[in-house]
Write a structure and sequence with these properties.
Blueprint (H helix, E strand, L loop, with lengths): L1 E9 L2 E8 L7 E10 L2 H7 L12 E2 L3 E9 L11 E4 L8 H4 L14 E2 L2 E3 L6 E5 L3 E3 L6 H4 L2 H14 L6 E5 L3 H12 L3 E5 L3 H9 L3 E3 L6 H8 L5 E6 L4 H10 E9 L13 H7 L2 E4 L5 H13 L8 E6 L3 H8 L6 E5 L3 H4 L1
Parallel strand pairs: 4-8, 11-12, 11-14, 12-13, 14-15, 15-16, 17-18
Antiparallel strand pairs: 1-2, 3-5, 3-9, 3-18, 5-6, 6-10, 7-8
Helix pairs in contact: 4-5, 4-10
């Protein structure tokens, strides 16, 4: 029996291919993917913003995938056929980095999944063969497109953990895009008083509907707003969730002495960091980079999504059938949209 795989043949060129459904080997699980969300990385690879340097074509995109367990291989315990799961990306579990919990820095070379000459993540496929340590159980009542947020939420958990906030700390998230609002919810779960900076009126309205105080730097004075929001204490932490120079500059306008700035978002071209080293020195600032997530971050992310601590239903802009992949990627790359979720199965045709 064959299944469909979305393949990026070249920059700007997508196509559906078919392959035989694989059998899980020892330590593996076969997942029937229901939804895979299109990450910023996916559409930026598609439209060429990230160039060719990090991908070898043909390439099978997709990593924000969720579905049900179809078949379990030998040596896999604790899961059952039919379980609702989302796909995580963790290390081998045995190398030095993994043993101290830093699984994102795993030293064991990753096994490269290749099907009929195509390699990649394969999240945008009807079936996906993964290792047992990539399986994270999700609340069966959670829609699959929301369960697909496991990886994005885990990266936010990883970043907020690096900030190490204390309950009651004041935290600013710059940017109310997809990852800005995920970071804001995670920071709130960690006990922070969170406010958001955003210029787009629709995103401002959505942020407010989710319970966040919002300022617009195009019309409001961010220093005055921050002073009022923090009751004169100052901003302890800033998460830069927009990959541009203005957003980065804004972070250092408001962070207090001894405060921390988390550079969460990448930008293409890369944003500039316009900093006076003496200001860093005398301000005792902490500048932190973040990317990826450890296995513990995935576990907490699965809990946050499953119990409703982090809510993503308002962050799904469109659900598009797999066959309409060009339309889906065009929508994903359209400014102002949040996540576009590919629906892997046309129930009338594929089942």
């Amino acid at each position: 029996m064959k299944f469909k795989i979305l393949v990026m043949e070249e920059i700007g060129q997508l196509a559906l291919r078919e392959a035989e459904i694989p059998k899980p080997g020892k330590g593996q699980v076969l997942v029937k993917i229901e939804n895979c969300n299109i990450c910023t990385t996916d559409w930026q690879n598609w439209n060429g913003m990230r160039g060719k340097s990090n991908k070898s074509f043909p390439y099978a995109p997709g990593h924000e995938a969720a579905g049900t367990i179809e078949e379990i291989g030998e040596g896999v315990y604790g899961f059952n056929v039919g379980d609702h799961i989302a796909v995580g990306y963790t290390g081998c579990g045995y190398c030095e980095e993994c043993r101290v919990g830093n699984t994102k820095a795993c030293k064991t070379p990753k096994e490269k999944t290749t099907i009929d000459g195509v390699s990649g993540g394969f999240g945008m496929s009807q079936y996906m063969l993964i290792n047992k340590n990539q399986v994270f159980e999700m609340n069966p009542d959670l829609p699959f497109e929301e369960a697909g947020y496991l990886e994005p939420v885990s990266t936010a958990v990883h970043g907020i953990r690096k900030l190490d906030p204390k309950p009651g700390d004041y935290l600013l998230v710059i940017g109310a895009g997809n990852m800005g609002l995920v970071n804001a919810q995670v920071a709130k779960a960690f006990g922070c008083n969170v406010f958001v900076s955003e210029v787009d009126e629709k995103r401002i309205a959505l942020s407010k509907s989710m319970g966040f105080s919002v300022m617009n730097p195009a019309t409001d004075n961010i220093v005055d707003f921050a002073k009022e929001f923090t009751k004169g204490h100052g901003v302890d932490h800033v998460v830069v969730a927009v990959g541009n120079t203005k957003a980065t500059d804004q972070a250092f306008e408001v962070v207090r002495k001894g405060g921390k700035v988390l550079l969460f978002a990448a930008g293409y071209p890369s944003p500039e960091l316009n900093l006076d080293v003496n200001k860093i020195h005398y301000g005792n600032w902490h500048i932190i980079g973040t990317g990826g997530a450890n296995v513990g971050d995935y576990q907490l992310a699965s809990q946050y999504l499953s119990d409703g601590t982090v809510v993503t239903k308002n962050l799904i802009s469109y659900k598009i059938p797999l066959e309409d992949y060009n339309k889906a990627f065009e929508l994903a790359a359209t400014p102002g949209n949040y996540r576009v979720s590919l629906v892997m199965w046309n129930k009338a045709k594929d089942n």
